[in-house]
Amino acid sequence: MNFDKKLLFLLKKAKIPFILTISLGIMVSLATISSTKLLAIIVNSVFLEKKILQQVLNLILLFAIVASAKSILMWLKTYFSFKISENIKNHLREILSSALFDKGPSNLSNEKSGEISNILTEGINKLEAYFSSYLPQVLFSTIIPILIIAFVFPIDWISGLVLFVTAPLIPLFMILIGKRAENLSKRQWKTLNFLSSHFFDVMQGLTTLKLFGRSKFQTKKISEISEEFRQTTIGVLKVAFLSALALELLSTISIAMVAVEIGIRLIFDKVEFVDGFFVLLIAPEFYLPLRQLGSSFHAGIDGVTASKSIFAVLDENTKNINGNVVCNWDEDFTIEMRNLSFSYDGKTNVIDNLNIKINSGSKIAIVGESGAGKSTFFNLLLKFIYPNSGEILFNNQKISDLTKQSWYSGITYLSQKPYLFYRTIEENLKISNENATEQEIRQAIEFANLTEFVNSLPNGINTIIGEKGINLSSGQIQRIAIARAFLKKSRLILLDEPTANLDAEIEDELQSKINKLSENKTVITIAHRLNTVISADFIFVFEKGKIVETGTHQFLLQQKGKYFEYFSNYRGEL
Amino acid sequence: MKEFIRLLKIAENFKWIMAFTALIGFLTIGSSIGLLMVSAWLIAKAALHTPLAFLQVSVVGVRFFGISRGVLRYSERLLSHNTTFKLLAKFRVWFYEAIEPLAPAGLAKFRSGDLLARIVADVENLEHIYIRIIYPPIVAVGIILLMYFIFGFFSPIISIIIVITLLLAGIFVPIFTKRIGRNLGKQLVETRTKLNILTIDLTQGLTELIVFNEREKFEKEYKRTSRKLNYLQFKMFFIDGLNESLITLVMNISLLFTMIYAIPEVTIGNLTGINLAVLIVGTMSAFEAVLPIPTMIHNLETSISSGKRIFEIIDEKSTIDETESKKENISDFSIKFNDVNFGYEQNKIVLKNANFEIKRNEKVVIVGQSGSGKSTIINLLFRFWDVNSGKILFGNENVKSINLDYLRSKVAIVSQNSHFFNGTILQNLQLAKDNLTEVEIQSVLEKVKIIDKINSLPEKINTWVGENGIKLSGGEKQRLAIARMLLKDAEILVFDEPTANLDSLNEKSIFEMIFEVSANKTLIFITHRLLNLEKFDKILVMKDGEIIGNGIPSEIIKTNSHLIKLLESQNQHIW
Predict the structure, then answer these.
(1) ipTM of the complex
(2) Among A115, A408, A532, B562, which has the highest number of CB atoms less than 10 A from its own CB?
């Protein structure tokens, strides 16, 4: 059985619809039993008691009422069964998105964020069938047969016994055969995986095939591989379908047995026709829930599989530290790091016992090889991650004591890949300052040299950009980021090589804009340009998580230490 | 609907096997109906104390139907799945043959891996065209006819009742529920799209959302959209669920009318009580045949939209016309572009007045910023597109007159991201040439300096690469790609930003190797990083689709203003 404690726990969010679904299911069953009983009585009255229509009219009327009630109850049961999954899906998406915010971007590799994207859109839907059909079906397949036997036994214990004995055989066979099929498919899984992804692989590499003149021959290969796939899969299915075969055979053979034993006993008056006929009519209903369980079985597996990735995201320990002191950016400040250490894996320190003091207004450049700890340094400042030991202090106050809202209000962060939301240009700018006036927005656009471009668009600043909006070049995307920075006017600016990978001319222009933005602000840059390090008040040279040298550009060159080494290696000459 | 007919035509060869499977399906349901009707007859007869001897046939009949139902169902499932997989192969081959001549131009839309995955899914979902769309209605019609005939033996009126109610359940019920949910489809698509976009915002724009204090606002919007989508999905499933309860209602209505008509008939003796029992039971078991119809309508719609998407792609005309391209024996592989103008789309020219010449064995570097037209020259060289105006010549032959496969055997390319197929290293190398000898392979792997790495692997060149195989580093991939390219033994070697994603150590080593291996071949090297320019015989400087510089490096570096600017800017970078 595919039960997962954590999944079942989710049912708590849909207690009422679940209970209602089960209750209604039972009522539907009772209605079926009643209408079947009525049919048996009616047929018996006409067949053996020779009654005429008028005499059974009231029974027929009752039958009509019960049948209509049954349909209404079925309808209501459907309603609530889907409400179960609706409630759970609502809950899951909300806690997943919350978890993402708590985790922060530094814990999300590209791969992981694609995976999570998938979970939020497709993965959650896979739980639909689990909660709305599979789980209720599991309960029904126990309750309903018991209910039916309870009505059959008192009137015909022999038939009752036949039903009682055959019923458990069904899940037994299903499980036995199911296990064999599962093992078989596990062995074949790698082959099946390769065979089924071959077509996609070919499509992805079609251009490569063309370049090597192989594309026309691929047709034959696709045929062959698909044929192999067919053979392998049918091999597995043959076994898997056996469980369905067992299911069907058991139920139909049992019905046959019931019919024959009732027939024989009827000949010798050992049982009443009305009871025998009732049992015959109700027997298929007895086996139906068990057969339905068989077909919703895979929904059970799918659900548990999907849930594994969901809970993997939710179970990770994420801290969410939000202080309650409001950060005051209005006056001069110092940011200090005391004995700061951080490690991603718990073994190697990516930041190792850092001690720095930064006064407001200074221009700091950070240099070092990749992996030396520069981005981690930013992640700590941005509260995306928390130090293992030591602290970051703002005017002697631990930044973990500060509210996130007030802390972020004073920081602008420009990265290499700014993200544009699928909203209008204006909305994309307004995220830095909700209360920006239209004039301020125009100023920001002007500052970033986007005015001409925006004016050329038919919808101007109401043009939608982002994922499915109009295509912007990387230069234009950075301009929007700069416009955002202009609007935010924060006192601390963190720059993570924002103009790297831009074309030369644009890089110069945007760099000068960034310099303008940086006047009178505190700026920390992960540096890659000559001018940045030359004009920095301090350069921090990172190596393996430690700062090994500090000073101005000229000073460090004279030291002929690490900085000098990096510099001359790359440049080749001075 | 015409898309569906087009799709059906492709499956034409399967019509007999499909008909046979439908027959088995028909017999399967027929068995359950038989089982219950004969059982009812048996019991009713027994109630009249008929001696057992007279009932033997029906006892055998009951046992027979009891077994045949299960066995038939098993065979039907195997047969229909078998057919499904055969259809899958057919559709894949059909799609591939249609799109192969259109590539890569026709595939340009699929820059995103997502879109490609979707069209592949569309093609592969067509396999269900049989099991879910064609098969259910055929079986249903068969059963309706069967009931008409069987019940016809008892009473023409009752056979009409059963046919009408079965048709009601099979046709009107699904149409009715469809009408109720008709606006739902559009709303679902819209809301789902919105949620997908917000989800991307969440996963990729997380930094911005946090640092701009947008969290609260976003979570509210996300919650709202999620709830709306879930509600719409609930509505859709719920309306679907109506089908089952309505079909049950129609079945009960059928029973009702049958009873009301049949009981007086029994009273006056036109029908027996046994008939009554059998008719009731037959009615109840016949409706199994129409239960799958509502889902079938859904699947029909899905197939049609898949079909639309597929046909949109393969119905496009090829970007080149191969009818005159026959020549296969060119002796001179010098290249000439004469007044070439080209644009991928109408009204957007990306290559203007390109005029240049590349002599045999020349080493040429093409520089310029992204979007300046460098890769376009290559696309035209490989004739993936034809020029708008002007001519491209190989020696004295217009590229249009050269056989395409022959052309592409003489020009080879390694670009930024080389594609390797799921398979062994050897299989990927064999793409270049059949019947590779051990010596050829070892020699080329040595040339690209990857032989040690490969020999260190447990399976050596039979190591699996690709999805479930080992992950090669960027540098290793490019070296293998170059090895593959060398095995092709082309005349002209093209490298399009081959080291763009590599670290500087690899970059240096691969660059040197490229020069070694292209010693007596024409080399075209495209880059936006300006290193080692003096090694080349010629530089082409490109800006905004035009060639603004064409000459020997030592001169051009001093005289071309754009190039000078680019060099200066590059010098700004310290690392």
Answers:
(1) 0.89
(2) A532
